[in-house]
Amino acid sequence: MLNSLEITSTHPKSLLNAGTGFLSGYTHTLNPYAGCSFGCSYCYVRQMPVALFRGAEWGTWVDVKEGAADVLLKQLRKAKAKGPVTIFMSSSTDPYQPIEYKARVTRSLLEAMADEPPAFLLVQTRSPLVRRDMDLLQRLGDRVRVSMTIETDLEPIRKAFTPRTPPLAARLQTLRLLRDAGVPTQAAVAPVLPSSGNFAAALSQVVDRVVVDDYYMGDGSGGRRTQRLDVQAKYRELGLDPWFLPSACRLVYERLQHHFPNDRLFLSQAGFEP
């Protein structure tokens, strides 16, 4: 975490937003926090209004949404009265920010949803902290899936692109623990980063479902947001230009095909659907 990280408390009147675009398969998205201290270099949210209008560098601020569980319960009950509710958590932050250890906003939301279950909840994270909430995830049963971002198996690559994110070994171990506890899981190789030939085999040891995505399919703008971030410069700097091309995603997908059946291996949007 950055020493200069700014933590602010907010009191939102609304939490559930309509699922649109890449997440149009969901009725709603849910963000326990605004901002993200992981500050990944390639994050598409850097080009979204929540980041652009803040006036501060992405990764240097996080807003903690106080009283979130009560707000969610009211909205969730109202939404469920109109039909099945499917929720993607989260679309513009990681629900397991380091501040979550203390703030416990995400846990409070899971407690609310365990009492008032949606039809489906996808928890998208890259933090091993999700294992803390295994009891609530187990209560949700087959209504939940934990999708853990694991873009590579190479620690030097992780440190080059996402230096403030949790180590890869801890994420892999978390997937194994959740799977063994009966919590539905998947690994999200999203976006594809340079990886070794052993990556697919390593994933097959801890999870039985994988989704693969890249900048061109997954940044919500056909790769234009990523181009504006000049992520390609990092590839060039590391001498890894071919890994920035769409062919890199095909390579990783083909490697995964040797370890996962077609009905457990997904490409881009299809792998994140309810």
Topology at a glance:
Blueprint: E1 6-10, E2 16-18, E3 28-30, E4 33-35, H1 49-52, E5 61-65, H2 68-80, E6 86-89, H3 100-103, H4 105-115, E7 120-125, H5 134-140, E8 144-149, H6 155-161, H7 168-180, E9 185-189, H8 199-204, E10 210-212, H9 215-218, H10 224-229, H11 232-238, H12 246-257, E11 265-267
Parallel strand pairs: 1-5, 3-6, 6-7, 7-8, 8-9, 9-10, 10-11
Antiparallel strand pairs: 2-3, 4-5
Task: Give a quick set of tags describing it.
pyruvate-formate lyase- activating enzyme, 3-stranded mixed beta sheet, 12 helices, 8-stranded mixed beta sheet, 17% strand, alpha/beta
Describe the protein's architecture and organization.
The chain is built from twelve helices and eleven strands. The longest helix is centred in the first third of the chain and has 13 residues, at 68-80. The chain starts with 5 loop residues before the first strand and ends in a 7-residue tail after the last strand. Strand 7 (120-125), helix 5 (134-140) and strand 8 form a beta-alpha-beta unit. It is globular. The chain has 274 residues and is an alpha/beta fold. An eight-stranded mixed β-sheet has the order 2-3-6-7-8-9-10-11, covered by helices on one side. The protein has helices at 49-52, 68-80, 100-103, 105-115, 134-140, 155-161, 168-180, 199-204, 215-218, 224-229, 232-238, 246-257; strands spanning 6-10, 16-18, 28-30, 33-35, 61-65, 86-89, 120-125, 144-149, 185-189, 210-212, 265-267. Helix 2 (68-80) packs parallel to helix 4 and helix 4 (105-115) packs parallel to helix 5. The protein has a single domain (6-272), classed as pyruvate-formate lyase- activating enzyme, CATH 3.80.30.
